[in-house]
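Re: Re: token formats

Sure, here are both.
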Amino acid sequence: MNKRGHVLNAVLLALGLGVILAVSPTSEPTMATARAAATAIAELSLPVVLGALFPDVDTAFGRHRKTLHSLPVLAVFLAFPFYFGNLEYVWVGVATHYVLDVVGSRRGIALFHPFSDREYDLPTGVATSSRWANPVTLAVTAVELGALALVHYHVVALDAGLQQATAAFGL
């Protein structure tokens, strides 16, 4: 996907994820809930957008869609908040960047780089310059938000601490 698509995806994800984290689907909306959602959106916007743009830094060095488009890089972003206590939610931007490149573009990404340069994609992708690029981005974003909501409401809260998250998985 192109940079415009990644920014659109990240902004919509920050908005949607802010609502998911702040609003309970079983309670009535209130001004306090609206304020909590606005605060969550403000807190999430910068890390999610930065995370969504970070993988394309490899256009300036390394090999694009290989060097910073891999699962080992995502693992670093997942582990970072647990070790250093910051950069939470950057992983959401990085992970959704990967999803958008695998599902939304024709080329795919080298998920297992540096161990393998094979690029993985799905047949749903379109050319980044296609008139379908934005509709595909919106569709992928909607699916991502649905998946995040399912995880948050039914598996483990996305804003849970490490102890809560590991307990939810029996670890």
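Second one below.
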Amino acid sequence: MKRRLALPVILAVAAAIAVTVALLLPSSAPPSETEFTLLDGRKLTLQSLRGRPVLVSFWATTCSPCVAELPELIRLYQEWQRLGFELIAVAMPYDPPTRVLEFVQRHGVPYPVALDIDGKITSAFGGVPYIPAAFLIAPNGSIELSYTGRLDIVKARRIISKYLPGTPSAS
């Protein structure tokens, strides 16, 4: 009798462990319905950007490495946005919106900047415990590259160029 009960109990425990592990592991793609509320009030979703390579960059106005990589991100956006590339900067939930707006205006940031006041965007990307952090999303919606720290721009350019016609590595 004990042997008959042992197998279902073991299977139930194994199933519970598998579900727990699956929930704790980072997803290979953020939900396509992830919504970004931009500084100008517009809303974007990852679904609306499907078919394009998208770099989602998490940052804060008080983060020195974030500020240091800003010129490279601006250059990347200005060079490749017309070819279909999109970059969305997400200000961390603790960064006051007025400070973010002032920073963006002062530095002439040309790409969309989202506020994550309620932390939903950072949660959709696994919590983002450290910044700067970047997620390069392929046109099919999967995460092609996740990077913590100052972005390896050469590596990012190489990956992005695979998806954009007319870029040096895409030819």
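Residues 144 and 159 are 8 Å apart (CA to CA). The first strand starts at residue 35 and ends at 38.
- S.
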